[in-house]
Amino acid sequence: MQISNAQRASILVSALPYIQNYYGKIIVIKYGGSAMINEQLKDSVMRDIVLLSLIGVKVVLVHGGGPEITEMLKQVGKESKFIDGLRVTDKETVEIVQMVLCGKINKNLVNLIQNKDGKAIGLSGVDGHMIKARMKDERLGYVGEITQINTKPILDVLEKGYIPVISTIGCDDEGNVYNINADTAAAELAAGLNAESLFLMTDISGILRDKDDPSSLISKITYKQAFALKEEGIISGGMIPKVECCISALEGGVKKAFIVDGRIPHALLIETLTDEGIGTMFTGEE
Amino acid sequence: MQISNAQRASILVSALPYIQNYYGKIIVIKYGGSAMINEQLKDSVMRDIVLLSLIGVKVVLVHGGGPEITEMLKQVGKESKFIDGLRVTDKETVEIVQMVLCGKINKNLVNLIQNKDGKAIGLSGVDGHMIKARMKDERLGYVGEITQINTKPILDVLEKGYIPVISTIGCDDEGNVYNINADTAAAELAAGLNAESLFLMTDISGILRDKDDPSSLISKITYKQAFALKEEGIISGGMIPKVECCISALEGGVKKAFIVDGRIPHALLIETLTDEGIGTMFTGEE
Amino acid sequence: MQISNAQRASILVSALPYIQNYYGKIIVIKYGGSAMINEQLKDSVMRDIVLLSLIGVKVVLVHGGGPEITEMLKQVGKESKFIDGLRVTDKETVEIVQMVLCGKINKNLVNLIQNKDGKAIGLSGVDGHMIKARMKDERLGYVGEITQINTKPILDVLEKGYIPVISTIGCDDEGNVYNINADTAAAELAAGLNAESLFLMTDISGILRDKDDPSSLISKITYKQAFALKEEGIISGGMIPKVECCISALEGGVKKAFIVDGRIPHALLIETLTDEGIGTMFTGEE
Amino acid sequence: MQISNAQRASILVSALPYIQNYYGKIIVIKYGGSAMINEQLKDSVMRDIVLLSLIGVKVVLVHGGGPEITEMLKQVGKESKFIDGLRVTDKETVEIVQMVLCGKINKNLVNLIQNKDGKAIGLSGVDGHMIKARMKDERLGYVGEITQINTKPILDVLEKGYIPVISTIGCDDEGNVYNINADTAAAELAAGLNAESLFLMTDISGILRDKDDPSSLISKITYKQAFALKEEGIISGGMIPKVECCISALEGGVKKAFIVDGRIPHALLIETLTDEGIGTMFTGEE
Amino acid sequence: MQISNAQRASILVSALPYIQNYYGKIIVIKYGGSAMINEQLKDSVMRDIVLLSLIGVKVVLVHGGGPEITEMLKQVGKESKFIDGLRVTDKETVEIVQMVLCGKINKNLVNLIQNKDGKAIGLSGVDGHMIKARMKDERLGYVGEITQINTKPILDVLEKGYIPVISTIGCDDEGNVYNINADTAAAELAAGLNAESLFLMTDISGILRDKDDPSSLISKITYKQAFALKEEGIISGGMIPKVECCISALEGGVKKAFIVDGRIPHALLIETLTDEGIGTMFTGEE
Amino acid sequence: MQISNAQRASILVSALPYIQNYYGKIIVIKYGGSAMINEQLKDSVMRDIVLLSLIGVKVVLVHGGGPEITEMLKQVGKESKFIDGLRVTDKETVEIVQMVLCGKINKNLVNLIQNKDGKAIGLSGVDGHMIKARMKDERLGYVGEITQINTKPILDVLEKGYIPVISTIGCDDEGNVYNINADTAAAELAAGLNAESLFLMTDISGILRDKDDPSSLISKITYKQAFALKEEGIISGGMIPKVECCISALEGGVKKAFIVDGRIPHALLIETLTDEGIGTMFTGEE
Fold first, then answer.
1. Is residue D21 within 8 angstroms of chain C, CB to CB?
2. Which of A11, B66, D77, E200 measures 20 to 30 Å from A214, CA to CA?
3. Do D262 and D202 form a contact (C-beta atoms < 8 A)?
4. Cβ neighbours of residue B79 under 8 Å, at least 6 residues apart?
C-alpha cells in the first residue's frame, strides 16, 4: 500500500496531542525479551527511543539480559547449582552477570542509539552508587534486593541531554555486587524518578482474561482491579511478577504502567503516540 | 484507505532524520494567501506549526493580510488613490493597516495556536522597535522600506518558549508607522535571525519552467541559477518579488528558502519532515 | 519661576526614599480617560512610565479604549443594540473591539514608549492565553468575566526588561474572544502579580465626602472604610465600580490602590515619588 | 521659594535622558577636599551616590584622606622628615596611613551610605590584591606607584549590588603596603573598569583660563587641548596633577572625565543628571 | 627526623575522611591571643586557613585585637576611665578601636592571606550593616551588644571565592559604632551562618578538670555537661565567657565548637584534619 | 616511626603550593600494570584519586586490562591467532575485550572509588561516541586507531562532579567496536581535554640512561630530548611506545607528562603533591 506524503504529514499531526502529553516527562522503559534478541526488532526499538527523546520525552532505558548471561556461563563452563529451582548466584556468577550486562549488552545498546544519531550514556547501579542492595536470601548468594535508589546520576545524565541506558546490578558499601531483577529495578527507578510512565516490554500481548483467548485482552485496568484479579487467580504464572511491578510503580507515584508486547514493531510508539492501546495499561483510580 | 497504527508509528519513525536536522534551529514562515483565508487550511497550518515547535524547531510566524485590509478599508468607506497602479497609503490608511494586522489577524493567529495547546505571543515591528523603516517613495505615503532589524524581542520570546507571531509594520524615531511588504520583512527577519530556512507560503506550486505546464516544476535551484532564470525571463510577473525574497534571504545567510504551495494540506510538514519536495527549494551552492 | 540646577538636584534627592520603596516592585497602571485622549497628557504619562521603569519599578500598563471603539463602530456603520441600557456585544462588535484595542491603541502606546527610549512589548489577554473568560450574560453577548489569570507571559516580558502594555480582551478554549472591563482586569492582574500598587487613572480627583465640594477629598482610606462609605451611599454612581476594583485588588493581596486624577500632569510621579497624595489611596488595615 | 509637587515631578522627568545615558554604566568618583570635611556636604554627597546607585548607575567611590592622616600623625607624635619638600613615608607612617584610610574614613563612608539605605562594602588595594605597587623613590619610602590593577574584586562587589568604597593603599608580593595618590588610583581604576566617567571632586571650580577670573571657567575641553594648555602654562600648580589624571583616564578608555567643585551641594547630580556643567569636562575627540 | 615523601603521601591520604567531612561547609574561626601576636604563628595560621579554603572548606575569619588597641590608645595619650574594673569606651575610644581593628589588623591579615596565594576580602560589622548593635550599659559607653546579624555580605563574599576576614565592630541606624566582643560576635555569626564548626583560638589548652593539672584536659564535652561544670565552679575565671560562647553557638545550631590552643603550630589543621583532639570539643547531644 | 599530628599538619601545609598549582585543572591518569593487579596497590591508587578529586583536581581515569582479557579469552576457550607476533582481534575477541573492559574492570574501579566516598561514573569510547576509530591493519582485525575524540561526555560528567572512569574501546558509524591501546587513548584524550598533566602508570621506574642501573633515572626531560634519546637507541623496547605517548600528548598541548612507577605506594600523590619526582617528567621547552 502506497502512503502519500500528505497522509504522512497528517499522521504526524495526529500524534500532536500525544506528544504534548509526554513533552518534558520521564518515561522508564524496561527492555527485554524477543525485542532484545531479534536484531530487526532491536533496531526498531532503538529508533523509537531516539524519536521519543527527540520530541522532548526523557527516556530512561533499563535492560535485562537473561539469555546472554546463560550463554556466557555456559561458555566459561560454569555449572549452576539450584536450590528449590532457583539458581545460586555465587561470586563468580555475579561477576559474569556484571560483565555481560554492563560490558556487552549495555554498550551495544548505547552504540545502537548513537548510530541512530541519538545521544546515550551507559550506566549501572554501581555508577554513582545508584542502586544500593543487600542479599535477599543467603542460600541464593548474590541475588540482591534494593535497599536504596539514588536517581541523581540519571537526572544528571538526562539534564546533559543523553539517554541513560541502565544495567540493573546493585552494590553495597562493602564492595559486593548483586544481580537485581530488571523488572523490579525498572519499577523502583520509575517511582524514584517520579516518572510519567513505566513500560515493561515482554513477549506476551498483555493480561488476558482467558489466557488461551487472545481476544480477551484487558486494555486498561486500575491497580486495585489488577490486585483483585491476582487474588482470583486470573493473573498467574510468569505474569504475576510483571503485574506486581506495575502495581508497585503506581503505588510509588508513577502515573501509568504498561505491559507491552515487544514483538510488535513500534509497540512503544503505538502506545505513546497513538490512540491505540496494544497491551495492558495500569492506572491509579478509574 | 485504512492506515494501521503500526504504519502510523513507522511513519513517525521515518520523520526522524528530518526532525534531527531541524532540531533547535530557527525557521521563518511567511504565512499568507489561500492558506490564510480558508478556515480548514488555516487550522491545519497552525497545527503543523505547533507540531514543529513541539519537536524542537524554533518557529517564527510572519503574516500578511492584504485581503482583510482591503475589506476593512471598504467598510470604513475609505477610497484609495492610485499612482502608476500603486495604492497610496496615507496616514488614515496606515492606521487601518496597523489595526487589521496587529489587532485582528495577529491575535486571531495567536488564539488559534493557543487553542491547539501551543504557546504564542503576538508581536509587531513596533514592539521593541523590531523593524525600523523609512518612506520608500514620498508619493506613495507610508509604505516603508526596512532600515534596521532588531531581532532581540523575537529571540527573547523564543527563549521563553513562545512562538512569535509577527505583523510586519515598521516604525521610525518620529512615531510614524509604515506598511511593510510581508515577504520582504520575512526574508530580512530570517537573515537577521540566521535562520535555517525561510518558507514563503503562496498560492502557486513553485517555479515552473513553463508556466502553463504544472509538470515543469523546478524542485531545487541554487540562487545563482534563479538569478539567471530571472534574467532569461522565465521567472516573471508576480513570481519575481517572491524569488527575490528567497535570493536575498540566502545572501543574508539563510541556509534554504522555499516557495511552498499553501493550498496543499500540511505543505509545511511535507517540506520539512519528508523526503518529498512539493514546492521549489532555493539553496546556496549546488 | 526659574528653578536652579541645584534645586533640581535637591529635588531628585528628595525622591530617594520613594524610589527605594518602589525599587524592584510591580505596579499596575490602568490607563484611560482624558489622560489617554489629550496628546500632551498622553506624552507626559508615557514619559513618567519610562522614568519609573528606569529607576527600577516594574511597570505593567493596562489600557482601555471606550471612545475609540465607539468611534470605530460608528465608522463601519455598526449600529449597537441595547438591553437595559447596556450595549449588546455581538461577534462583529467584539472583533472591532479586539482590533481597536490590540491593533490601534496598544501599538500606539508601545510606539510612544519606545520613542522615549523605553522598551515595551504589547500583549493582550489572548497572548499566552493570559486572560481566560466566559460570557457574563448571554443577552449581552461577548462581554466577558474573568475565569482565570495567567501571569506567566507578563512576568516573562518583565524579566526580559520590557514594559508590558496590555489590552484587556479575554478568551476561552473554543476560540471566542470577550471584551473585558479594563478596570476589573487591571485589578485582577495586580492581584495575580502580587503587585505593590494599583493605579486607576480617572477623570475625577478621587473620592469626595461631598461630591460637590472638591475640598472634601478623602486622601487615605482603608478598604473596610471604603466598603462602609459605599453602604452609606456616599460612594455612588460611576465611582462605585472604581472603588470596587480597588477593594478587590487589596483583598487579592495588592498593598495599595489609588484612584488618581489623570488630568493632572505627572499625577503618577506625584503619587509615587513625592509625599503629596493627590488622589485617594486605599490601604489594608489602618 | 515654594516648589510644587507638579514641578518636582516635571524635574524628575527632565532627568530622564541623563538617567538613560548612565544606566548600567560604571562611574568612578574620587571623593576628597572640602566635600569630605564639611559634615553637611558629606551627607549630601552620600545621598547623591545612593540616588545614582538606585537609578542604575554603578558607582565606585574612591576616597583620599590627607588631613585626617596629618592629624593622626600629630596625635601619635610622629614627626615627619622631608626631602625636597616631600614627606618621607617610613614604615610607621604608612601604617598610620593604612589605619586612617581603611579603618577610619572608609568605614565611616560605608556607614553613612548604609544609613541612607544604600548598600556598601569597603575595600582597599590590599583586598583581593586589587592594587599592586612598588616604591616610587627609595628616599621617600613607602610611597607607591601602581604596577597592576585587578578589578575583579570591584566587579564582584558591584555584581552583588554593593557600592564599593575604596581606600587607595597598594601592596606588593613581599607584604609591603604603599600610600598611593588617590587621584592617580581613581584614574587607573576608572581605566581598568572601562568606566563611563571619572569625577574628581576638588575645592576649585574647574579649569580657569585666567586663574583670577572665575568667569573664565572652561566647561568642556578635549584632552588634547588640555595637554596644549598645560604646555602653555595656563594649567599650573596644583591643577597639573588633576588634569594629568583626567588625561590618563581618557587615554585609558574612560569616556569622560570631570573636575567638579565639591563645595557646591549636589555637584555630582548636577553634572550627571542636568544639562548644566558646573566644572570642567574632559572628552576624547571634539 | 626524616619523613619520606611516601610517608607524606600516606599522611595526605589519611586526611581524606576529614576533608570529605568538611567539604563545602562553613567554619568560623575566632583568631586572637598569642597566635595573633607571634609572627611565626600568625604566618602558620594563615597558611592553614589558605589550605582549608583550598580543599573546599568555607572559612570565615573573625579577629580581635585587644593588645593593639591598648597600644594605640597609649600612643595617642588617651587615658582610660574604669567603672567597676571595666574600661569606659567613649566616642574617641571607639574611633580608635574601629581604626585599629578595621584599618590595621584586618588589612594586615588580608594581606598575609593574599601573599600565600589565598583570596581574601576584609569586612567589618559596618559593611553591608552586617552587625547591628546597641549600647549594653550606658555607663560603659560604646560597648555594644548585638541586636541583629545580617550574613548576606559574608555569603556574597564566600560565593565569589574570597575568605571573609571580619572586624567585630557593630553599628546602629543613627550612625554610632560599637566595640563588640570578638568571641561573642564569632559565636553569633557562626549561628547565623549555620556553620559546621566554631573555633575559638586561645592561649590555653582547653578546659581542665583541675586547672593546675594539664593532664586533666577534657577533650570532648556536651554543652549540657559544660553548663553543669560551670555551675559546679570547675569552669571559672576567664574561661567562663569562652565556654558560654561555645554553648550559645551550639544552641544556635552550630554542630561543633572548639576551644583550641593557638600556641600549638597548626592547631587548626590538627583539629580539623586529624583524629587528634588537642583542645576541648563541645557537641550537642552525646 | 611515630609521626605526630603536628608533623602531619605541617606535611599537609607543605602540599599547599602543589594543590594551588593543580586546583581546577584536568589530569588524565592511565592506570594499568601491577598497580591494577595488586589489590592493596589498587586500593591505594583509588584513595589517591579520591583525594586529588576532593582538593579540586579534575581527575580522568583511563584504564587498560590486558591480563584480564587474556584470562577471559582462555576461560571461554578462544584460541588466538598471531600474525608477525601480533594477536589477531576477530569479532568474537573484540566482544570479549569490550565485555571485560567495560563490564568488569571499569565497574570494579567505579565501585572502589564510590566505596571511598568518591563519586564516579564509568564511560567507554562508545558512550556519547567519545572515541571514533577505524581499522589499523585489516589482517589484525578489530584493532583500532583513533580518528576522532569527542570530549563532551567527559566534560559533562566532570561538571556534574563525577570522576570519569574510561574504557578505551572505539567505535565507528557502522556499529563496529575496536580495541584501542589504552596508553595511546589516554594521550589523545589528555590532548583533547587540554589537560595539565598526563600520568602513565607503569611497572618501571621511569627512563633509565643505563637500563641496568636504577640510579641512572632521568627525572626530567624535554620532549625534544626524549626524541633524541630514542634516535640514539637509549630509549628502547617496551619503553618506546610509552615515550611516544608522552611526546604526542605534549605536542597536543598537555603541559606535563609523567611515566610513573605504579608499584610505589602513592606514586601519584608523590608526583603531584610533593617536590620529589619519582619517575620521569616530560615537559615542553626547558
1. no
2. A11
3. yes
4. none
Number of domains in chain C: 1
Nearest CA in chain B to C167: B103
Query: How distant, in Å, are the alpha carbons of A138, B45, C100, D277 from that of C65?
Result: 80, 33, 8, 44
Which residue out of C48, C127, C183, C261 is catalytically annotated?
C183
What's residue B213's pLDDT? 87
Look at residues F105, F96, F104 and name the one whose alpha carbon lies nearest to residue F75. F96
Domain holding A144, by residue range, is 24-283
Domain assignment present for residue D13? The answer is no
**Catalytic site includes residue C183:** yes
For residue E190, what pLDDT is reported? 98
Closest Cα in chain C, distance from residue D146 (Å): 36
> For this structure, is F33 an active site residue?
yes
Of A173, A76, A83, A97, nearest to A142 (Cα)? A97
Whether C8 is covered by a domain: the verdict is no
Neighbours of F20 (CB within 10 A): 16
Is D9 within the bounds of a domain?
no
In the block, residue with C-alpha cell 560483565: A99
Say whether residue D77 is in contact with chain E using an 8 A CB cutoff.
yes
Report the distance separating Cα C282 and Cα C285, nearest Å. 10
Residues of C in contact with B112 (CB under 8 A): 175
Q: Name the one residue in this structure whose C-alpha cell is 588617590.
A: D182
pLDDT of E27 reads: 98
Query: Tell me: the pLDDT tens digits for D151-195?
Result: 999 999 999 999 999 999 999 999 999 999 999 999 999 999 999
Dmax over CA atoms of chain A, in Å, equals 62
Q: State the CB neighbour count (10 A cutoff) for residue B82.
A: 9
- The three cell numbers of residue E166 are 571580619
Q: Which chains touch C (3 or more CB pairs under 8 A)?
A: B, D
Partners of C274 on chain D (C-beta within 8 Å) are 5, 8-9
Does the residue D12 lie in any domain? no
* Chain D hits for E122, Cβ within 8 Å: 102, 122-124, 126-127
A213-222, B167-176, C162-171, F230-239: segment of lowest average pLDDT = F230-239
Whether F24 has its CB under 8 Å from any CB of chain E: the answer is no
pLDDT digits (tens, 9 = 90+) for F46-94: 999 999 999 999 999 999 988 899 999 999 998 878 887 777 899 999 9
Give per-residue pLDDT as tens, A113-122. 999 999 999 9
Rounded to 5°, angle at Cα A151 from A99 and A180 = 40
**Contact list, F173 vs chain A (CB under 8 Å):** 115
Q: How much is the pTM?
A: 0.89
Phi and psi of E33, rounded to 5°?
65, -155
Q: What gap in Å lies between CA E130 and CA E128, rounded to an integer? A: 5
Q: Is 0.90 exceeded by the ipTM?
A: yes
| E chain contacts of residue D122, beta-carbon cutoff 8 Å | 102, 122-124, 126-127
D183 to chain C, closest Cα gap in Å: 25
* CATH number of the domain that residue F195 is part of: 3.40.1160.10
Rounded CA separation D47/D63 (Å): 16
Q: How far apart are CA B43 and CA A10, in angstroms?
A: 12
CB-nearest to E119 from D106, D128, D171 is D128
